[in-house]
Design a protein that fits this description.
The complex is a heterodimer.
Chain A lengths: L17 H13 L4 H27 L14 H12 L2 H11 L5 H27 L25 H34 L3 H10 L7 H34 L11 H27 L8 H31 L3 H12 L3 H13 L7 H4 L2 H28 L14 H24 L5 H11 L14 H4 L9
Chain B lengths: L9 E7 L2 H13 L6 E3 L7 H5 L6 H27 L12 H27 L20 E6 L7 H10 L4 E6 L1
Antiparallel strand pairs in B: 1-3, 1-4, 2-3
The chains are: A mainly alpha, B alpha+beta.
Amino acid sequence: MHVTSSVRTPLVTGGKTYADVTEDVSRQVEGRPTREWTIAFTISVIVLIYGTACVCWTWWEGLGVWGLNKTVGWAWDITNFVWWVGIGHAGTLISAILLLFRQKWRTAVNRAAEAMTIFAVLCAASFIVMHMGRPWMAYWALPLPNTFGSLWVNFKSPLVWDVFAISTYFTVSLVFWYMGLIPDLATIRDRARSKVSRYIYGALSLGWNGAAKTWARYEYMSLILAGLSTPLVLSVHTIVSMDFATSVIPGWHTTIFPPYFVAGAIFSGFAMVQNLMLIIRVVFRLEDYITVEHIESMNKIITLTGSIVGVAYLTEFFIAWYSGVEFETYAFINRATGPYWWAYWAMMTCNVISPQLFWIRSVRRSVVWTFVLSVIVNIGMWFERFVIIVTSLHRDYLPSSWAMFHPTLFDISDYIFSFGFFFTLFLLFAKFLPVVNMAEVKAIIKSSSEKLPVSVSGVAKGERVANPTFNKDAE
Amino acid sequence: MSDSHNNGGKFLVGIFDDDDVVLKAVKEVKEAGVRIHEVYTPFPIHGLDVALGHPRTKLGIAAFMFGLSGTLTALSLTAYTEKFDWPMIVGGKDSYSFPVYIPVIFELTVLFCALGMVGTFIVSNGLGPSVKPLMFDLRTTDNKFAMAIDLSKNGLGEGRIEQILKESGAAEVNVKQF
């Protein structure tokens, strides 16, 4: 028995029935690609081809094609890596943490958000491989017996922790996402008219038939996967932050990095989810499933995490002064007033000030405002990583080695590569897989829809809607 | 699926339109003395497995065991490489320094647990890319709920079972022969 508050607004509008859910979501999988999709996909593939050529040139020539120098050894590569990993946090947060907190609005957005997570982590990983310079030696990061007297990886290094964290996160997210897809793939298999799609979706759905016993095990498994993913998602950005925090560089050696990075990751991840969902809901006509309520809920999380990030910025500044460490103090004053002041203030404006506009109800319920502010948040979060990495490095302990970082064409092009890669994958997902979790939405439809699909014996149609306080619900 | 051994049987399939109705019907049909083979639904219905009398899943035990094997793998990997095979002092730490291995131990625990549990789930439910699903009604992955009754395992006549199903709220009753 689950009690639904009568003051809550419905999560699925338009009086949808179970069959409507199937129809509305499967429509775009079964139909021919739309014009918009074809145009967007073509652009993404062109960008991907250009980016791949640039990445190949980077490897062919060596990392000297980037603007790095002896002082600034990490710049756009690691900035992009941290930025993409951060974006990759929202999917698992939505599907795992919100599942544990019984936030039912997650059901409409979790599928696409998880897909976004997986593709974002792939983009992040691509920067690590690029940054290696010699990608054919990427396996050196793994603890494999080797011909150097079996010199192992250094398990005391956060960079090795990162290898384990990112690869585990990617694998578990992929498995979680795929398991969630199986019942929906079976739906598409059973509706398929052509032999080819019946065969492909049949193989992908692993012979699912929705038996009560299978469902019971499936739900149990989802709960454990959510329980595993919750600490996992928090651990990933914690470990990424330790790449910096365990060093002795002023501006990096900060104990608040783990929670501050995790909040920032959720912040940018939700902003990216907003951008993608706002487009999907219009293009695929899913406004009844991804409602203004969903957008508002996500905006509230953006405001919360944005404020946490803001507090972290101020805390860093305060501690730099309060610690009395000359180098630490200088690092922060240099951030705000040094040659990279514009990056610092872009970060402050985009991340701390702009999301505060979501305190206004009409702003956080506005599609246009949400879209614009989400883009701003992601720009701000890119600058945050740039500020942390570059401004901490470019003026080190020895003034004679102070330097500036200037991006080259290849710094920029390799970043563009990741956009081509991300959007190509995401568009393929959006066309060939159901973007909304049909089974989960059907399970919440009674407690949250405006009307019941059919009358239940003993309960007249509409009665439970007039008094939804004691709606029995699939949860 | 676990019911693959029933190939060749004759089934009576009651089709229901609503999850609450089918849950109620399961209890009524069982009370009328009919053995239910299985119920097929487009989404999970809570309490249905209990009503059908399915035993509680032991997936949690499998998950714990796989997680434990991940912990032990990570513990032995770090200990073997850093303590015995090639001891090294990094950052002034002991060659074996447990706290710095916690991230790797945690990640491998989660990895083994998740993959092992999902693998167990797939194997125990007989799922796989080449598995042909036993579908009693194609609409059960869309909007219908199907209650399958194996006629060979029930003493009651076909007509009587059909009547019981109809009385408990089935919208239609079909015969399915595998």
